[in-house]
Specification:
This protein is an alpha/beta fold and 408 residues long. It has 13 helices and 21 strands.
């Protein structure tokens, strides 16, 4: 079949293409569509299937699989993680290949029961577990939280192929499939990292350590192009993007505090200025102020990631915080926020709910929230502006290690 791609002499792509998808997992834009990558590995004693596809694309998956092997040849089915776009055809595959052994990570056991809804036999693979297909050897690596808790990777020794799971993937549809044959997918590769892997960059670094011991000639991810021309380039990019050493605070030795605000009549702006000045007066803190009306999402994410403390200000309009403030908090989903200090403030005319609403949302995002939100009715007085200065000092001192009795 012309649409079955050979990854190596004994490995074939048997996944499916989804050119029409435009949103993935609600938050990701997929302007070029995507793919659900699955692979067939053939050894002298039998076959291993690496992942399945989204249920709606099962026909393409089984059509390609059946062109390459019979079901009784399948010795193993490996799921690198159990998200529905990779496990959608699993139940049907196990019915067709009852002699196959299912291999999942230890963290996937509960998820498997939730997906299949019945007891099925499986084996757990931890780092170092090896299976044999006769003349082919597959070694497993535990790589949790990339980007699901149950994620693992595997390495086919004889072909020097890393089956990476979601790591090194892209939401990019091109049936030419290989990185040296498809169009320019560099933006999709970085976008995928930023929106899926960036919150887990500490786990990325752990995975890269595991990969170091292998001679990797090809990276076969679960989405997008197969990386065969220069896999070291993509590994180095992940290392660069995930390394804490790139951030300014580590270069200059200061803690970074960012004040984000939106203002209708300059009142919240005046508060932001004083809060920033107060925070910046604390030794060891560099405080910066940003108007949300002029800040795009990419800059938001970079600033949020670099910050040790985040203070958000919004006026209250129609009983709510303004949309740019909520958009800023939406960006937090791309980051690891646990341990960051947070605080909120704002001016209001009638009811003043916005600071408290933002405060509660930051609580759910795992920020440390040591002090109550600050709100001022209409135009702040000079005395109230001095309170704003003290508010900034307090948040900065806590960021520098000042102890507080409880988090509110």
């Amino acid at each position: 079949m012309k649409d079955i791609k050979k990854v190596s002499q004994n490995v074939h792509f048997i996944g499916a293409f989804d050119p029409q998808i435009r949103t993935f997992d609600i938050i990701m834009k997929t302007a070029n569509g995507s793919s659900y990558n699955s692979y067939l590995v053939r050894g002298s004693e039998g076959v291993c299937i690496m992942d399945t596809v989204k249920k709606e694309f099962s026909y393409d998956f089984f059509r390609r699989l059946e062109a390459l092997c019979s079901y009784d040849e399948i010795l193993y089915i490996v799921l690198h993680h159990l998200e529905p776009d990779h496990s959608g055809a699993l139940k049907e595959l196990m019915l067709r290949a009852p002699g196959a052994k299912l291999i999942i990570s230890g963290r996937a056991v509960m998820m498997l029961k939730g997906i299949i809804k019945e007891d099925i036999p499986f084996e757990v693979a931890n780092t170092g577990k090896i299976i044999s297909l006769g003349n082919k050897t597959i070694e497993f690596l535990s790589t949790p939280f990339l980007h699901w808790p149950d994620t693992m990777s595997s390495y086919l020794h004889e072909e020097k192929i890393l089956f990476s799971g979601d790591v090194f993937g892209s939401h990019y549809y091109d049936e030419r499939l290989f990185d040296d044959e498809v169009g320019d997918f560099s933006y999709a590769f970085k976008y995928y990292y930023d929106h899926i892997m960036r919150p887990f960059k500490q786990y990325v670094m752990q995975a890269l350590k595991l990969y170091e011991k292998f001679d990797i000639k090809t990276i076969a991810p679960l989405h997008g192009p197969i990386l065969r021309t220069n896999p070291e380039y993509y590994i180095e990019k992940y290392g660069e993007w995930s390394s804490e050493a790139k951030f300014r605070k580590h270069t200059f030795g200061n803690k970074m505090l960012c004040v984000f605000y939106m203002s209708s009549y300059e009142n919240t702006h005046k508060m932001a200025q004083k809060i920033t000045a107060g925070a910046d007066s604390v030794e060891g803190i560099v405080a910066s102020m940003y108007d949300l009306a002029s800040l795009d999402e990419n800059n938001m994410v970079d600033l949020l990631e670099e910050s040790d403390a985040v203070i958000i200000g919004s006026p209250t309009i129609n009983g709510d915080a303004v949309k740019p403030a909520w958009d800023l908090l939406t960006c937090m989903a791309y980051l690891e926020n646990r341990g960051k200090v947070g605080a909120t403030f704002g001016s209001y005319g009638w009811t003043g709910e916005a600071p408290q609403m933002l405060h509660e949302r930051m609580r759910w995002l795992k920020f440390r929230l040591p002090i109550k939100p600050m709100k001022i009715k209409l135009i702040p007085t000079q005395a109230e502006l001095e309170e704003c200065f003290s508010f900034g000092v307090e948040v900065a001192e806590i960021t520098m290690g000042k102890m507080v009795e409880i988090e509110l």
